[in-house]
Amino acid sequence: MRRYEREGVFWEVRVDGCCLITRFGVVGQKPREAVRELADPTRAGSAMDRAVAARLGEGFVEVEAATEGGRRLVGDSALEERLHDHPDDLEGWQVYADMLLQHGTASELARLVALEVESAASGERPGMATERAGLSSRIFEEPPNETSIRTRFGFFERVRGVALPGPPDALRFLREIDVEVLEDGTGPAALFEALRETPPRGLRRVTMSVHWPEDIELSWVDVGRFGLFELCPRLESVHLIGGGIELGPVRAPRLKQLVLETAGLSAEPLVELARGALPRLEDLEIWTGEAFRVPVGVPVAEASHVDALIRHDLPNLRRLAVRNCRFADAVVASLLDTDLPARLTHLDLSLGALTDAGANALIAAGPRVAHLSLDVQANVLSEDAAWALQHAFPTARVDGQRAWEGMDEYLYVAVTE
Which of 62, 185, 236, 299 would bridge 267 by S-S if both were Cys, CB 3.0 to 4.6 A apart? Predict the structure, then answer.
């Protein structure tokens, strides 16, 4: 369970299948427990995210990760917040090592942190590397196959692979994770679930890498629920690739770049983005794809959802990419109905179904959009429309237009798999 405290009161929460389980009470006294059953595990996860956000808003602070059999590593939350923001603070790390040693349950980790601080401050001395290697071998579990790690000050700093290494406490100061998709298309759903259980609050970057054979398609990868924006408030860059993307609540005070690359996007990510908080977002790239790539019964991304997102408060947005989009003409209309073009420097509508009507609307907008770096590659523009767009936007990328017979039933995006 995850544990939060405020002025002598604690609150713990976890998800077990479809159930949201909370324990709460006064520190040092017997807790009360409540169980709430939801329709499915996804809704239970969403309920937990909302409950955590509410507790954080009330001033509760996450102090540790709790387990049924006892407690894991206990840290000073204020000091950890300081180290998340200032990861090169050697004095802070030394204080952290002393705190671990005084706590008495992590003496080897305390020693490893102290050695890392000494090495960074004064350089290597004889025998230091050997001692660090011995401590690391006892503290860290063997990484899963095809997983690489980079450690710093006794904790994982960067992980690249298909699964998280252990133990969970070693992820406490994780800053970067690059999720590699297996050749069979296995996505990162289990990995994201594990991160939600013990969220690294200093996490800055989450990306997905795909290195698969040609017969593996984008739509085969099930990303599943992400749900880390409120749990990892220092996120700056997120790039998700595949189908079944669910973002969960989006309050991302430091997020600068977000990419959702898919052959079929549901409505949920766009709805969450349109009601979220993204004050520093500079680069937004959304692939909407085709409706038939979204599971039956799940609401699909539509022009109205993109319209709401475009009209949302995005004060620092400079690059907008709505790619692989069947309703690209409607996106242009929404964009031109706002003052967003004046703030943008780049507009990317490539791989979609932009027709001559959308191109003509951009041309007619004249000086309002003339400053934009424009990319409309691989749409369905006629030769005349592509030429006119190139003339209006000399640096525009207009090549690779696909043939279209002018009927909506034959209008498709470039990436449907």
Answer: 299
